[in-house]
Amino acid sequence: METVNQANEATQEQKTNQAEAKFTQADVDRIVQDRLSREREKYVDYTALKEKAEKFDKIEEESKSELQKATERATALQTELDSLKKANTVREMREKVAKETGVPANLLTGDDADACKAQAKQILEFSRPSGYPNVKDGGEVRTTGKRSTREEFAEWFNAQ
User: Chunked in runs of 10, what are the mean pLDDT values of the chain (160 residues)?
Assistant: First the structure.
């Protein structure tokens, strides 16, 4: 009997929960609007706080001593100088490797001499055609004058 009573109580509790869980669209809209208004209230003074933060930053900047400002400028200039020196050193090294290897300096992208030399070697290997012989005389056609080029070629071919 006790289990039947417990089952009835559980069923009644479920019915009550279901009745409470049903909302109309108006109820849902009201709940959402309440939630949105609470969130908006959190950020009402955002613009005022932003203005105060900007004023604080401005006052803080003005309160720095001239020494601090000069130190910051010197640090920025030193950083710029170091980067320019490094760029100049790399450029000079690339030009040196370019003179040694015959590869244009603008094709070299390495940051040290070994990398540039290896890159120049690869460029030279790529740029040399492997299937064609090197012509020492410039490749111009020479004839003896009495015979045509065709006849000279035929004579040479027969001799081979």
Answer: 57 60 85 89 83 88 78 93 94 91 88 89 80 60 65 82
Q: Which of 149, 105, 148 is nearest to 123 (CA)?
A: 105
Using only the alpha carbons of the chain, give its radius of gyration. 44
Q: Within a 10 A sphere around the Cβ of 110, how many other Cβ atoms?
A: 16
Residue 127: the pLDDT is 80
- Run of H or E including 151: helix 149-159
- Encode burial over 56-75: b for 16+ CB neighbours within 10 A, e otherwise: eeeeeeeeeeeeeeeeeeee
Count other Cβ atoms within 10 Å, centred on residue 115. 14
Boundaries of every domain in the chain = 44-128
